[in-house]
Design a protein that fits this description.
Length: 341
């Protein structure tokens, strides 16, 4: 149940969604140097195009009465990745977006992420949390637990399928295409993008303006991790969840802003954030499992045994997350690693 360890910090980093991506309309790839020379608007449109290419094809409830049953787990997974990247993009590049469009896109993407949350929680419960508990407590009435969780999982998947096959999601996809000027070929065009602000109202068109903005974002999100990182053991579960959200934001922003961080600091920084996010994710999974256990058709003694075991997981995993976060680079190291342009 604590499958992510501090050794994950030394694991190879995932490929950044920014580096080595195809150039719109060209068969070559973007190097980090090329990305640093791009304007913020062009980079935003290009990266949004790439994120939307991962948008899965979903059935339409208006045309297929069995559409809810035909939404598979892989489609939900792809959509969660696309949603995560799009939310990070509109947050990082918000100064180049019209406020009205920024609010609209952020609200709709938040709705989409929340509509898939219960399904993800139920899947983790079935595939990871319960198998570990089953090994520690074989005397629990597991057939009753399995039946209860199967109903919860079915309800969660039905709600997700209803959202993912409805008109609101189709409208969101159409709005995203319009917002970033994305045509039939899948690539966006800055001049056709409806969501972009006039240049006179942005930090600027030149790459140096984007570099300065990148530095400000990286600094602000690094600082936001403190002081919670220093007093992790004293935080409640809600505060731990809030810290995990901050870590996720810092990690996704660092991945988007890869070209403006030197590799010597960027790689360990992203790896530490990834490992801490995984550990705090396990804490959140245990908290969710505790809430579900409270309503399971078990005796009070059996429920208390499961909840107590999950308490131990929360304490131990939080301690490991604190150890991982203790390896964050200093503010001075991060500052020196930022490229000036």
């Amino acid at each position: 149940m604590t499958r992510v360890t501090s050794a994950a910090i030394a694991a190879p980093a995932e490929v950044s969604p920014v580096a080595s991506q195809p150039v719109a309309g060209v068969g070559t790839t973007l190097s980090v140097r090329q990305i640093r020379r791009m304007s913020a608007q062009r980079l935003l449109v290009t990266l949004t195009s790439l994120a939307l290419m991962q948008w899965p094809s979903l059935p339409n409830a208006a045309q297929d009465t069995d559409s809810a049953a035909s939404v598979d787990a892989e489609a939900i997974h792809q959509l969660r990745i696309a949603t995560r990247r799009l939310r990070a993009l509109i947050d990082v590049f918000s100064p180049w977006l019209k406020p009205r469009w920024h609010r609209r896109l952020k609200g709709e993407l938040r709705w989409l992420g929340q509509s898939m949350g219960p399904t993800r929680d139920a899947d983790v419960l079935v595939s990871t949390t319960l198998p570990a508990l089953r090994g520690d407590h074989p005397d629990i009435d597991w057939p009753a637990v399995d039946a209860h969780v199967a109903r919860l999982r079915g309800d969660a998947r039905a709600l997700a399928a209803e959202a993912l096959t409805g008109e609101r999601l189709q409208a969101l996809h159409a709005v995203l295409l319009q917002a970033f000027g994305i045509g039939a070929d899948g690539w966006g065009e800055v001049r056709a993008a409806k969501a972009l602000r006039r240049l006179s109202r942005t930090p600027g068109k030149r790459p140096r303006a984007l570099a300065k903005h990148a530095h400000n974002v990286l600094r602000a999100q690094y600082v936001a991790l403190f002081p919670d990182c220093r007093q992790l053991a004293m935080l409640g579960t809600e505060e731990l969840h809030a810290l995990r959200v901050k870590i996720k934001t810092a990690r996704y922003s660092a991945e988007l802003l890869t070209p403006w961080l030197r590799k010597a600091v960027r790689t360990p920084y992203e790896d530490i954030l990834r490992a801490a996010q995984g550990l705090l994710g396990q804490v959140n999974d245990a908290v969710v499992a505790q809430r579900i256990c409270e309503h399971m058709p078990l005796s009070a003694e059996q429920r208390d045994a499961l909840i107590g075991r999950l308490d131990s997981v929360i304490v131990n995993t939080t301690s490991r997350a604190a150890h991982v976060l203790g390896r964050l680079p200093s503010a001075h190291s991060l500052e020196r690693a930022m490229r000036k342009h």
